[in-house]
Amino acid sequence: MESIRTRNPEAALSSLEAAATSARGGFGCLFSTAAEFESALIIERRAQGRYGSPRSRWPLLMFAGCAMMLVGTVLLFR
After folding, report:
1. Per-residue confidence band for 1, with pLDDT thresholds at 50, 70 and 90
2. What is the rounded distance in angstroms from the CA atom of residue 44 to the CA atom of residue 72?
3. Which of 3, 16, 35, 56 is spaced 20 to 30 Å from 42 by Cα?
4. Is residue 7 scored above 80 in pLDDT?
5. How far apart are CA 21 and CA 13, in angstroms?
6. How many helices (H) and strands (E) does the chain have?
7. CA angle at 51 for the pair 49 and 54, rounded to the nearest 5°
8. b vs e for 32-64, b when ≥16 Cβ sit within 10 Å of the residue's Cβ?
């Protein structure tokens, strides 16, 4: 049993192209470039406070610990 589409491939192709064109029309985007999207995303995230500087003491504690180990090693082999 043959379908109508197999008998007329040009009509099937044009029908498929028309369906694809109408489907693409439904996915409109507010931004014309990726740079506009990324800048809007960064502005929104800054407004939410996501890019605030972290107030962690971890790097300072690591530095103090390494400095104390270095001083201890120097005093041990002196």
Report:
1. very low
2. 49
3. 56
4. no
5. 12
6. 4, 0
7. 100
8. eeeeeeeeeeeeeeeeeeeeeeeeeeeeeeeee
State whether residue 9 is helix, strand or coil.
Answer: helix
- As given in the structure block, the two tokens for residue 52 are 């605030």
Side chain identity, residue 28: G
- Per the CB < 8 A criterion, the answer to whether 31 and 37 are in contact is yes
Q: Which two tokens stand for residue 57?
A: 């003491």
- pLDDT digit string, tens, across residues 19-71: 877 776 666 677 788 899 899 999 999 888 888 776 788 889 999 999 999 99
Side chain identity at residue 62, one-letter code: M
Decide: pTM greater than 0.90: no
